Amino acid sequence: MLITQRTSSGRIAKGSNLRHGLSDAxxxxxxxxxxxxxxxxxxxxxxxxxxxGIKVCAAWLESFDNFYADIxxxxxxxxxxxxxxxxxxxxxxxxWLSHARQQLNRRDNTSHPGVTLERGKYRADISVKGAKHxxxxxxxxxxxxxxxxxxxxxxxx
Length: 157
Known about the structure:
Distance between the termini: 55 Å
Number of helices: 5
Order of helices and strands: HHHEEHEEEH
Largest sheet: 3 strands, antiparallel
Strand content: 15-25%
């Protein structure tokens, strides 16, 4: 979508090269940040994206217009999420999602409730009557799941 600035007489303004008119929009900031995480080795989050092989699809690299056409306007309070945390930024793997919901879609989560991977060890937790209890850190996921299972039996969960 080509947008041009015009003078009061209707002529195209000199130096007008706006393509989308959304450079102040949150979607544009998201697009710039997404590319930086994947492409710029000096970016602080590069180690979690580009260094792991996470890429931005060619169409989105080519232009913001393509990104915006695929992903659409960002609903208030939502951020860009990759459905498969090991997959690339591409139309079939991205959506707008709340930060709270994104926390459920992390590399450090395991398939067992209350067990997460944290700083290279498996952490086991359990919530009882609204209070979260730390059960310990373990070398293996099986040990953490075992601790969580014992706590579930103890607390009748």
